[in-house]
Every structure is written in C-alpha cells, then in structure tokens.
C-alpha cells in the first residue's frame, strides 16, 4: 500500500528519474564510442573518421606476428572435385621465408622467399610459374603480397565478415608484383585480433579475382596467428586449404638456414 501511495503522489518523480537514467546511459555510450574510435578500436558497425582509420591501420601493422617461427603445415588442394594433400613447413626470420613441401613425384620442393627475390630447387619451368604446388596459382609472390602491400591504404568502411564486424582497407599492389590480373588487395581486419579475416585480390576494375578466408585462429603467447585459412580462385574455383599443425616461436633462428647453399643440401621435412 505504501508503494502504491508513493507512485500515486510522486508519478513525475519516477518518470523524471527514468529519463535522467536513460540520458546518463546515452552519455556513457557516446563517451565509450568516442574513446574507442579515438584509440583505433573497432566499434561494431561504425564508420571510422580519418584519424581513427589511420590509427587502426597502424595498430594492425604493429600487431602482426613477425617473430622468428617454424610452422608445420598441411595443404589440401581441391581441383575439379579431386583432392590432394601435401605436408610442408614454413620458417620465418626478419621478413625471409623458407617454404618446403613434400612432392608426390620428386621428394621435396624448397623455396627461399625474400622481398627482393625467390629461389627454388625445382626446375626452371615450374619455378617460372611461381607456384609452391603444381596446378595451384599460389607461390612466393602471393605469400609476400599481404606483407609488402602496406603503403597508402584507402579506408573503405565496416563490413561483416564471417559473422564478425571488420574494417576494410584497399591497397594497390606494387607494379612489379602485379600478376594474374591482380592490381589491388582489400583487407577485412578484425580489430579484436588484429588479423585479416578475409583478403581479396582485385583486378584493375576492382572485381574479385581470388580471395583468402581465415577459418580459425590460434593463440600463440599473447598473439593470435592463423590456424586454418582457404584460398579460392573465383574463375577456376580451384581451392586450397592450409592448416597450421604446429607453430613454434624461436628467439633467434639460425640465419644460415636462409641461404641457397644450405637449402641445396638440407631438408626440414622428416
């Protein structure tokens, strides 16, 4: 009864408090939004101002996993309904990569990949195609493109990818690395993990040529690294699935590994 009397004699008081509460909540949300945007964090569904977009891209570059590492991988190819599996290993040190795959015909395919050049132990005909695996257009240049294409990004806005809100940026591929009709790369970056959930390769009219989709992430220390991703060619529908079976971080991999002379006589696949 006392509660009903309170409601009867102070109806405006209750509605006023409700309005004040809603107003304060609105202010809290506004300030939280401004703080997130100012610090380059993703706000679901929000379009970032210029400075926040620049900060977001800088955070993405600074958070990329660039330590020395060795990753054991498995690659599954799917062409015309036929599937094949290859075991491989990737070593990284200071922007240099060693990529080695088991080859069903010749034992081992080795590649040394740097920003300036690539070397392979396979014959010139296959090496000139720039492929890691026969019949699949994925090779040294493709491996480096997301790493070297970082200059003058253009912010495109937010986009939902795989059920998560990302921020999209588009970058022009350097002229000396444009191949297979690809001229631009569009990154869809998850702000929470600082990882591109999707990388799209576009032609000069910005039409989709192929795309790389991240399926799973793996925690490595305080960082997140790709666990499984797929690369799909839009025209041919050729598809490869790459799975990280094991990922080990090293404080200082031996620099001697990353030389042609060493790779000619040594293998990392057992």
Layout of helices and strands, plus pairs?
Elements: H1 2-9, H2 11-38, H3 50-63, E1 68-79, E2 82-93, E3 96-103, E4 107-113, E5 118-120, H4 124-129, H5 140-148, E6 154-161, E7 164-172, E8 184-190, E9 195-202, E10 208-220, E11 223-233, E12 239-250, H6 260-265
Antiparallel strand pairs: 1-2, 1-12, 2-3, 3-4, 4-5, 6-7, 7-8, 8-9, 9-10, 10-11, 11-12
Q: Gist?
A:
It is built from 6 helices and 12 strands.
Please bin the fraction of helical residues.
25-40%
Shape descriptor:
globular
Query: Can you count the helices?
Result: 6
Task: Report mean pLDDT, rounded to a whole number.
Answer: 79
Low-confidence stretches: 1-44
Classify the beta-strand content into a percent band.
35-45%
Structural class: alpha+beta
Largest sheet: 12 strands, antiparallel
Task: Let me know the number of strands.
Answer: 12
Cα-based radius of gyration, to the nearest Å: 25 Å
How far apart are the termini? Answer: 82 Å
Strand order of the largest sheet: 5-4-3-2-1-12-11-10-9-8-7-6
Output the helix-strand order: HHHEEEEEHHEEEEEEEH
């Amino acid at each position: 009864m006392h509660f009903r009397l309170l409601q009867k004699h102070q109806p405006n008081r209750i509605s006023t408090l409700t309005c004040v509460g809603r107003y304060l909540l609105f202010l809290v949300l506004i300030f939280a939004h401004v703080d997130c945007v100012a610090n380059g964090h993703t706000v679901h569904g929000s379009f970032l101002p210029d400075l926040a977009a620049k900060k977001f891209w800088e955070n993405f570059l600074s958070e990329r996993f660039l330590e020395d590492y060795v990753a054991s991988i498995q690659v599954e190819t799917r062409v015309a309904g036929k599937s094949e599996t290859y075991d491989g290993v990737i070593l990284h040190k200071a922007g240099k990569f060693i990529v080695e795959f088991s080859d069903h015909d010749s034992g081992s395919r080795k590649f040394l990949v740097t920003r300036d050049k690539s070397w392979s132990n396979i014959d010139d005909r296959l090496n000139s195609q720039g492929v890691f695996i026969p019949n699949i257009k994925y090779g040294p240049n493709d491996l480096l493109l997301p790493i070297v294409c970082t200059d003058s990004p253009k912010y495109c806005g937010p986009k939902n990818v795989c059920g998560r809100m990302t921020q999209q940026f588009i970058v022009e591929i350097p002229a000396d690395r444009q191949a297979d009709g690809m001229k631009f790369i569009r990154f869809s970056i998850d702000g929470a993990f600082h990882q591109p959930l999707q990388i799209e390769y576009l032609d000069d009219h910005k039409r989709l040529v192929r795309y790389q989709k991240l399926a799973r992430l793996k925690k490595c220390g305080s960082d997140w690294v790709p666990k499984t991703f797929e690369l799909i060619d839009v025209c041919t529908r050729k598809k490869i699935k790459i799975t990280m079976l094991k990922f080990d971080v090293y404080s200082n991999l031996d620099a001697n590994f990353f030389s042609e002379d060493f790779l000619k006589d040594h293998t990392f696949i057992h």
